[in-house]
Amino acid sequence: MDILSAAFAVFWAFIGVVFLHNALFAVLGLFETRRFPKSETLGRYAVIIGARNEERVIGELIDSIKNADYPREKLDIFVIAHNCTDATAKRARERGAAVIEYDNPRERTVGYAYRRAFQVIPRGYDGYFVINADNTVSKDYFRKMNDAFFALGKRAIVTSFRNAKNFGENTLSCLYGLFFISSCRLEARGRSLLGTSVRVSGTGYLMPPEVTERGWEYTSITEDWELTAAEIARGREITYCDEAEFFDEQPTAIKTMLAQRLRWAKGHLAVFSMRFLSLFRGIAKVKGVRRRFSCFDCASALTPAGIICTLALALEMILRGLTPALIAGITAGYAVGVVTACAVFMLEKRRVRGVGAGVKLAAIVLWPLFFGLNALFDIAALFRKRVEWVPIPHGRGKDSSPPK
């Protein structure tokens, strides 16, 4: 083996060691998850909904909350109608929600809406649910989340299973749905089982009041990543409740997908620059082996590995050409992606609703490419000085969630 080959072999081996734990979590998550005993105590919660021009869907969400199998008097619904130009506030009031109207065109991300909410919502709740306006929740959602929350002493942030409302509308919405249920199955389940913190993905989470004691700090274009990194660095556990299911409407147009994923990539890089050092320090400072490992895990996830690996692969191809080893590696990676997609669809068939065989097959074939685009979006985000949050149109697609 020449020096150049040895150097690349060492590099790829190092990358493999740093991210090897992800494979362990994925294998565990395929077969098991953390379960929580039934709580005899039912907490009182504020349900916080950020909504910008969501008149089409806000009523459906509020109805699903009211129809949930949880005492109505223990759930107070607050809709933060921020920078709205439609009837979102009116529709929410008609359904009985408390509405906080907030207008500031310079503060466009939903994090600013949450910040306003925690400035005016009364204290005294056991915890706060954060749910998006285009979501709906399963009938037993709040009971299952309450079980997990009380089992952990009301100290941890609890996330939930993120399903797609419009899973089968077209191939793109199916790919998005696969993306999120794969994250639950292959990332969150194994981590929660071993007591390692998971990532907050979008909304659908419950947090203790202590998280907002300093006010709401997270106003970047990916506030979920920012919240995750900051709280893990402080030593707080973020766990996952697989039995609590909520539904999220996914994009169906390529243009919308491109804008959203570029925003995710830019936000990922921003949170890396803001929070990586605190996570790195947390590896040595926070209490407990699991909490320290969570800091390492989150720091490695924030590292722009896609950029690094893509550039390394390009350099290797330039210097060494498209060798048989590289071709085999790329082929194997594609095959693993296809097999993973098949496995997730089979294991989660009970929760994947309204998806035709043709759409599912197309999603399986395209899944490695859809996932692999993350690295290209990360690279594109490096050259975009400014990426703003823009609203995604909701309420136009076929609802694949279960009957209310």
Describe the structure.
By secondary structure, this protein is of the alpha/beta class. It has one domain (1-31, 138-398). It contains twelve helices and eight strands. The protein has an eight-stranded mixed beta sheet, with helices on both faces. α1 (3-31) packs antiparallel against α10 and α10 (305-320) packs across α12. The longest helix is centred in the last third of the chain and has 32 residues, at 254-285. It is globular and about 70 Å long.
Write the layout of secondary structure elements.
Blueprint: H1 3-31, E1 45-51, H2 58-66, E2 75-82, H3 88-94, E3 98-102, H4 110-120, E4 127-132, E5 136-137, H5 141-151, E6 157-164, H6 171-193, E7 205-207, H7 223-233, E8 238-248, H8 254-285, H9 289-302, H10 305-320, H11 324-347, H12 357-382
Parallel strand pairs: 1-2, 1-4, 2-3, 6-8
Antiparallel strand pairs: 4-7, 5-8, 6-7
Helix pairs in contact: 1-6, 1-10, 6-12, 7-8, 7-9, 8-9, 8-12, 10-12, 11-12
